UniProtKB/TrEMBL annotation, chain B:
<comment type="similarity">
    <text>Belongs to the TRAFAC class TrmE-Era-EngA-EngB-Septin-like GTPase superfamily. FeoB GTPase (TC 9.A.8) family.</text>
</comment>
<feature type="transmembrane region" description="Helical">
    <location>
        <begin position="511"/>
        <end position="530"/>
    </location>
</feature>
<dbReference type="InterPro" id="IPR011640">
    <property type="entry name" value="Fe2_transport_prot_B_C"/>
</dbReference>
<keyword id="KW-0547">Nucleotide-binding</keyword>
<feature type="binding site">
    <location>
        <begin position="10"/>
        <end position="17"/>
    </location>
    <ligand>
        <name>GTP 1</name>
    </ligand>
</feature>
<dbReference type="GO" id="GO:0005525">
    <property type="term" value="F:GTP binding"/>
</dbReference>
<keyword id="KW-0479">Metal-binding</keyword>
<feature type="transmembrane region" description="Helical">
    <location>
        <begin position="336"/>
        <end position="360"/>
    </location>
</feature>
<keyword id="KW-0342">GTP-binding</keyword>
<keyword id="KW-0813">Transport</keyword>
<feature type="transmembrane region" description="Helical">
    <location>
        <begin position="414"/>
        <end position="440"/>
    </location>
</feature>
<keyword id="KW-0408">Iron</keyword>
<dbReference type="Pfam" id="PF07670">
    <property type="entry name" value="Gate"/>
</dbReference>
<feature type="transmembrane region" description="Helical">
    <location>
        <begin position="648"/>
        <end position="667"/>
    </location>
</feature>
<feature type="binding site">
    <location>
        <position position="21"/>
    </location>
    <ligand>
        <name>Mg(2+)</name>
    </ligand>
</feature>
<feature type="transmembrane region" description="Helical">
    <location>
        <begin position="280"/>
        <end position="298"/>
    </location>
</feature>
<dbReference type="GO" id="GO:0015093">
    <property type="term" value="F:ferrous iron transmembrane transporter activity"/>
</dbReference>
Length: 114, 700
């Protein structure tokens, strides 16, 4: 499990760097998905204080307003604070501070930054 | 030349209202009450050349893509309204710390081809935050003029006024090319609607109406002119493309012309956040703040209130002693003065409430309350954002219901609108205060004042009822609307004295003037009805009373009282009162209370004024309202009219009943149908009747 997670991070880094590896990467992701269905990092997986880079998401599920607040692929997101009962996530997305519900956050994939 | 029509637009929390206050001073009108149904603040601003500009303060909005009812208002004004009421000029207020997001809206407004001035507010913090701005570059790239303003310090306002005056020189070119979003789509769109502006077409085609009741929401552009409309999914993809395009433009500009020293910026904010949104401390602080608010409303405002009560009593006495006796003097002393007194008396409380609410909002604390309360509120079908209306509801349900516009989800918004009137508003206060003073002993119980405790219970009762009905409504209402929630967490700011003062003055004035008008009219009508009668019995009251056996031995004072009450019984009001008495007698009320109940349907606070008017007709001394009521005897039971069971029954009735026409009107306006206000009326008043009935019958 730990190994697979480790590989996933590398995969995303590679994806950003080069087109050549894309095929291999896709195979790897498929492989990962088959092995373990839950490997997916979203904003909801961030820990307090952690940062990540927003990846692609389905525009259908995400309110336009959220995009307008700066929630766009490639932007940096940081989890500032969790509300009591961990329901709301207080985020800083490239200088814009706002809170969204966990269910929405779980739809936005990210790559965690170190 | 006609007055220049200026619209003030901006993101929430950018100090837009402060700029508005600086521009207009106290020359502003807020339409908070129906009858004068204006939803926007309008003020006049004197320009350097002596001409005047009419400034409209629009609700804060993040974008022209409509996703909430507040944004709907803004877009409606810019797009749909009659050409002559469309603004000549937009002044867009941006916060220097959040320029990126603020410019997003700016580029959208630019695409409407209306002249725009960009106001960069809070310019005073730039040196402290290490921010530098290349104004010349910004003006060139954004095709606009920029005013660096600090609404807090009052700097830059004169420059802004000069720019407003020269608005004709402004360029109306756009920042981005709208057709870049999807050239094919836009070509089709243009073909289907030749001659129309593309961006406006695009806005109307992508307008969401999830926050509205679908069936009743206003028309969308369904007339497609044979235009092959794309699916919702594709449209949303295009919207994302649009957003990205705009941010690309903005980021490039900011990179070239905006420098910020990041180290200085976030520290204080995160430290305060850590405390205020802490999972235990956060709630404790919220509770303590609420406690402080209510404490001040009761304890601190009781002094000015006693003073006002006494003042009006002695004023009435002075009038009736000084002016020559006659029906005009009677009208003044028995109708007008007690009626007005009944409303002025709770000015201090309204002022305190709005003082606290505006401080909480201005400081940025309210957003933290939203943050910590969302989970709890969602269980009852409400949103964290419902906290703001529910708290404002303690002042008045009308602004509170208008404050629900920020809730994105229609179901959550509707439930909030429906339950807010249960919250104890300030109009209930005079009713509560007078009845509590009459029936609850002024003693301490375990160190707490019993009267204060009763008031607290009444507040809790309202809150519990609101939450309970929200819970029920959440189960019953079958409304499918997409649930999402985005709440901005603004930075902390010291509330501006000017803004707070304006809010307090405006709201208190509004309240006194608008409620005062109704109360004045009702008092006069009541007084007339109470001092005139149709029958011979009324006219000959004196002889009839004197002729009754046993009345001859009475002292003069007792005789006068007997005559007065006989007269009142046979006056118009007495006759009406006796007709409705059977309905309300099971609740422990006599016909005089019944009259007050009916008249206070217009507004709860009328109750006290009505009682004051009814009871003061015919009496010689002008006592305070309280002593007058406490001496009143029920003619059926022979006991005091305001005894414990009747008092409790009245308190419960006012806690639950929908006794406010203005609220009904505002609910109608916000829900676009009479269905919801009528349901509210019947449910609330029915529930109030049953509870009051049960309470009276049990205690009696």
């Amino acid at each position: 499990m730990g190994l697979i997670r480790f590989r996933k991070y590398n995969i995303i880094a590679l994806l950003k760097q080069s087109q050549i590896f894309r095929k291999i990467v896709n195979e790897n992701i498929n492989c990962c998905l088959m092995l373990n269905k839950v490997i997916k990092n979203t904003i909801a997986h961030l820990k307090k204080g952690e940062k990540g880079i927003i990846g692609e998401y389905s525009t259908d599920a995400i309110p336009v307003k959220l995009q307008e607040m700066g929630c766009l692929p490639g932007n940096e997101v940081q989890l500032i604070q969790l509300s009591p009962f961990n329901d709301l996530l207080y985020l800083n997305i490239s200088g814009s501070y706002f809170a969204i519900r966990r269910e929405t956050a779980a739809l936005i994939e990210i790559a965690k930054a170190e | 030349m006609a007055e220049l029509n200026v619209a003030l637009i901006g993101n929430p929390n950018t100090g837009k209202t402060s700029v508005f206050n600086q521009l207009t001073g106290l020359n502003q009108k807020v339409g908070n009450y129906p009858g004068i149904t204006v939803e926007k603040k309008v003020g006049t601003c004197k320009l350097p050349d002596g001409s005047k500009a009419r400034i409209t303060d629009l609700p804060g909005t993040y974008s022209l893509n409509v996703t909430s009812a507040d944004e709907q208002i803004v877009v409606q004004l810019l797009l749909d309204s009659e050409p002559e009421s469309r603004p000549d000029l937009v002044v867009m207020v941006a916060d220097v710390e959040n320029l990126k997001r603020n410019l997003f809206l700016f580029t959208q407004i630019k695409d409407l081809k209306i002249p725009v001035i960009l106001v960069v507010n809070m310019a005073d913090i730039m040196p402290r935050k290490g921010i530098s701005l290349d104004i010349a570059l910004f003006e060139k790239q954004l095709h606009t003029k920029i005013a660096l303003v600090s609404a807090r310090k009052g700097t830059g306002i004169d420059e802004l006024k000069k720019l407003i005056l020269q608005f004709r020189e402004l360029s109306v070119s756009s920042c981005i090319k709208v057709t870049d979003i999807d050239p094919v789509y836009f070509a089709e769109l243009q073909k289907a609607f030749p001659g129309e502006d593309l961006y406006k077409l695009w806005l109307t085609h992508t307008r969401e109406s999830d926050f509205l009741d679908h069936k009743n929401s206003e028309h969308r552009l369904h007339d497609t002119n044979g235009f092959p409309e794309r699916s919702q999914t594709e449209r949303k993809k295009m919207q994302q493309k649009e957003t990205i395009l705009r941010y690309l433009f903005i980021n490039k500009l900011l990179k070239e012309g905006y420098k910020k020293d990041l180290a200085a910026a976030t520290d204080l904010r995160s430290r305060i956040d850590r405390i205020l949104t802490h999972r235990v401390l956060g709630y404790v602080i919220f509770f303590l703040i609420m406690l402080l608010v209510f404490q001040s409303i009761y304890n601190w405002s009781s002094y000015p209130m006693d003073f006002i009560d006494g003042l009006f009593a002695s004023m009435a006495e002075w009038v009736s002693n000084t002016l020559p006796s006659g029906s005009f003097t009677e009208l003044l002393a028995e109708g007008v003065i007690p009626g007005i007194g009944g409303i002025v008396i709770f000015m201090p409380q309204i002022a305190f409430l709005f003082l606290f609410i505006s401080i909480l909002e201005e400081s940025g604390y309210m957003s933290r309350v939203v943050f910590i309360m969302d989970r709890f509120m969602r269980r009852f079908g409400l949103s964290g954002k419902s906290v703001v209306p529910l708290i404002s509801g303690t002042a008045c349900a009308i602004p509170a219901i208008m404050a629900t516009r920020t809730i994105e989800n229609w179901k959550e918004r509707l439930i909030t609108i429906l339950v807010t009137p249960f919250i104890t508003c300030s109009a209930r206060l005079p009713v509560y205060l007078i009845i509590v003073a009459l029936v609850i002993p002024d003693q301490n119980f375990m160190g707490l004042n019993l009267q204060g405790l009763t008031l607290m219970v009444l507040y809790l009762l309202g809150l519990i009822m609101a939450i309970f009905s929200a819970f029920i409504l959440n189960k019953i209402l079958k409304i499918k609307s997409r649930s999402f929630f985005v709440a901005e967490m603004p930075g902390y700011r010291m509330p501006m004295v000017k803004n707070v003062t304006y809010t307090v003055v405006e709201k208190t004035k509004d309240f006194v003037v608008n409620a005062g008008k109704i109360i004045l009219a009702i008092s006069i009508v009541l007084w007339f009805l109470a001092s005139h009668g149709p029958s011979e019995q009324f006219k000959n009251a004196e002889e009839i009373v004197m002729a009754q056996p046993g009345n001859t031995q009475l002292s003069e004072e007792e005789r006068n009282t007997a005559i007065a009450s006989y007269k009142l019984r046979h006056s118009y009001i007495g006759i009406i009162g006796h007709v409705i008495e059977p309905v309300i007698r099971p609740l422990g009320y006599d016909w005089k209370i019944g009259i007050a109940l009916v008249t206070s349907f217009a507004a709860r606070e009328v109750f006290v004024g009505s009682l004051a008017t009814i009871y003061s007709v015919g009496t010689e001394e002008k006592e305070t309202i309280k002593t007058r009521l406490s001496g009143e005897i029920n003619e059926w039971t022979g006991e005091k009219t305001f005894n414990f069971p009747t008092g409790i029954s009245l308190l419960l009735f006012y806690a639950f009943a929908m006794q406010c026409m203005s609220t009904l009107a505002v609910v109608k306006r916000e829900t676009y149908s009479w269905k919801w206000p009528l349901i509210q009326l019947f449910f609330m008043t029915g529930f109030a009747y049953v509870t009051a009935l049960l309470a009276y019958q049990f205690i009696k």
